[in-house]
Amino acid sequence: MKNKLIVLAAGILICTDTVMADAFPNTLWIGNSVAAAPILNTTTTGVVLRQIDNTLAVGLAIDSNKLYVNSQLPKSNFYNLDTLTTNAGDTFSLPHNSLDMTFAGGFLWAASFGTGSIDKVDPVTGGLAGGFVVGFTPIGVTTDGAGGFWVSGVDAVTGQQVLRHFNASFQADADIDTKDIVNGLGGLGFDPRDNTLFIGSLGKVYHYDTVGNGTDLGFFSLPDPNQFVDGLEFDPAAPVPEPAGIVLLGTVALTVAGLRRRLHVRR
Fold first, then answer.
1. What is this structure's pTM?
2. In degrees to the nearest 10, what's the CA dihedral of 29, 220, 193, 18?
3. pLDDT (tens digit, 9 = 90+) per residue, 68-118?
4. 22-237: CATH architecture
5. What is the Cα–Cα distance from 66 to 51, expressed in whole angstroms?
């Protein structure tokens, strides 16, 4: 819900669009691979804040106040992040069976494990709008906040787990060594505040930096040690509303002053 806000300050007239912000910013949304498990909303240290019960979530993505939940069905649901509710019409589709997702540039990006690619998906029509091949079986995906993506998965030939960065041109340019994670790589979430990654696994969420080969910054355990984190997303704080229009009052003042001078001359 948007409201117009007009502010007069420091000689500047500002008109902004204000948007209802998520009440729990800078937190994690943690999915699962079984329908009986909950979707968890936690702090970045694992404290559970809220949850959506009995909801399969092999992929999660966030756009503004919407939480997209991929249940790998023909149609999946999105939820309101404030109320955690969904309606019968709050659905979206994906072109291929996929796991984790992320939202960037107005599109959903979904890890299509059958095609070995990251699908670029129109969130309204569910149509395939592009994407890129990753060269392994993708499981987790998240934007890097700069036009690129981090993708986790498994090399189909060697069976080794992979955590790879793709730049804005969809070229692979970095890998992170995840040997500390011994129970598989799942969904991914990127924290733009410090450029770190949260990595889902069995019963745990790991935290890595993205410098060089990456450093394991620790992990937290989930309430259920048997919950495998397929979907994962970091929910950033809502950005500060940007001015929709700015009029410098100095310009207005000059115009008014000129009008007064003309009126004075006419007298």
1. 0.82
2. 30
3. 999 988 789 999 999 999 999 999 999 999 999 999 999 999 999 999 999
4. 7 Propeller (2.130)
5. 15
Give 106: exposed, middle or buried? Use CB within 10 Å, 0-12, 13-18, 19+.
exposed
Q: Can you tell me the distance from the alpha carbon of 249 to that of 247, in angstroms, rounded to the nearest whole number?
A: 6
Give the residue-averaged pLDDT of 145-173. 96
Answer for the pair 188, 199: CB distance below 8 angstroms, yes or no: yes
- How many Å apart are CA 132 and CA 246, to the nearest integer? 40
Sheet holding 76-80, edge to edge: 59-63, 66-70, 76-80, 91-92
Taking the alpha carbons of 84, 87, 92, 98 in that order, is the dihedral positive or negative?
positive
Domain borders along the chain are: 1-21+240-267, 22-237
Both tokens of residue 171?
Answer: 């070229």
pLDDT of 53 over the 60 cut: yes
Contact assessment for residue 249 and residue 13, using Cβ atoms and an 8 Å cutoff = yes
